[in-house]
Amino acid sequence: MRRSAAIFLLGLATALPAAAIDYRSVVEPALMYDAPSQQGKPLYAIARGTPVEAVVVLDAWVKVRDAKGELAWLEKRLLSEKRTLLVKADRAQVRAQPDDTAPMAFEADRDVLLDFLEPGPTGWVKVRHRDGQQGFVKTVQVWGF
Domains in the chain and their CATH numbers? Predict the structure, then answer.
């Protein structure tokens, strides 16, 4: 038991931190653990498409932070390079152009997932809704950017 604990602690000490603010999306519904192992305690389930911030990478596991600020471990194979954003405003206004006066393309309610397309001018990001509508949303209205 001591040896296992020592190996685990050594692994944590040599874990590589992820790149500065490295957001990913969860590929399929998954369990989040308190340690980088399926023998760890399951904390909660996370839905497919949910954006997370990679904080620490340790072999086949990644310690991630969710939109609520919770930290937990997830298997690396369950993360995608494809990025999604989570609406954190009560109602995000997605506009045709990155300008407050531009026509509204659509609105998205809190907790709706939007596909990240590309960064826009400072304070804006281009997104797409699952129904195909796209436009620009203020970065303060979403999480995962």
Answer: 2-82 (2.30.30.40), 85-143 (2.30.30.40)
